[in-house]
User: What shape does this take?
Amino acid sequence: MIILSIETSCDETAISIVAADGDFPHATYTVRGDALFSQVEIHREYGGVFPNVAKREHARTLIPMLEEALTEAKLGDTPHRELSSEQKDTLRTLLEREHDLAEALLKFFETHNTPAIDLIAVTSGPGLEPALWVGINFAKALSAVWDIPVVGINHMEGHIFSSVFDGHAIPEITFPALSLLISGGHTELVLMRNWGQYEVVGQTRDDAVGEAFDKVARTLALPYPGGPEISKSAETAREKGIVPAVTLPRPMLHSGDYDFSFSGLKTAVLYAVKDKEITPELTLELTLEFENAVTEVLVKKAAGAIEEYGVRTIILGGGVSANTHIRRSFEQYVKENASDVTLYLPEKKLTTDNAVMIAIAGHYHAQALKPAFREEPLVADGNRRL
Ligand code: KG4
Ligand code: ZN
Assistant: This one.
């Protein structure tokens, strides 16, 4: 089965073409084409992601990404029949708010054969709704013209697949597993009894971890996105052997549940710099203490859930799982306290949003749901839950 996948939930426009050979979870996957455009440079100017700017950039970039992925994949194809006026109407209606994209897509069909694709998988949430809609309507238009089914995928489930995918297959996971999903929009501890059986046992009550990294970075006048900047600064502080003079809180460490809260930590940093000049020394100290505080909470909460639920596998995913200190701390925790637990960390390249993870999730869903997925309504859901 050849899957074309589309990811537009936040600030990455990604299209992949993945060949799946065999049945999930024993299939092997070949990434035939993978095109990704990161909008980060555009959003840096504004200091954050604005949904309508993200949407505009997705609309501008989807066709170039599609062409790039198709060229790379070198799929077989069949000559394309001219679109009927009914098909043209369908396409224009689907993309009525994206006039330029609709016209560019009509041109695309005039100049390209129909590729041998069996399924389209598209992220339908969670994420920024205007951004999600562009991807979904684009997927629907391709689906209508090529006459192939389309399945809507949960972005967070995609991150889970991203973390365990070894570039070739999904390894045999021993359940129960626990996924810690940490990104710019989410902080969730997900107990997995099997693929498709997810229970969110803990989540943030306010800011997501990545959001806290980004906001603290802004307080310290570091550029967007703040995560990598804070991480770099904290690593330098560690190398220099700096011992922070300020102690930041470890929010909800002893709350007795698996929920998180990061907005107080962000405010504590704001207080720590109040009426002070933000010197390079203060930045080193605060980034180190902030990263230590966040990591301590993440590891302790995950450790509690691992014990309570007899977890055999821990999976880290989402943009923040690129963080070196967090990765190292989880490795250390497993080595010292849970040596019978298998830890999966995503390849750094796959920590950020990508379309390969959406293709694998698409393969799983199309197979697990059989024809039923064709009947499911495909709508953007900014708050879609696992
Ligand atoms: O998963 P992702 O690419 O997009 C969302 O779905 O949100 O995550 C982006 C988030 C941003 O908040 C960014 O600052 C954070 O991940 N991030 C990091 C690191 N790299 C990216 N946070 C901490 N340390 C990093 N090295
Ligand atoms: Zn993400």
User: Anything to note?
Assistant: DSSP finds twelve helices and twelve strands in the chain.
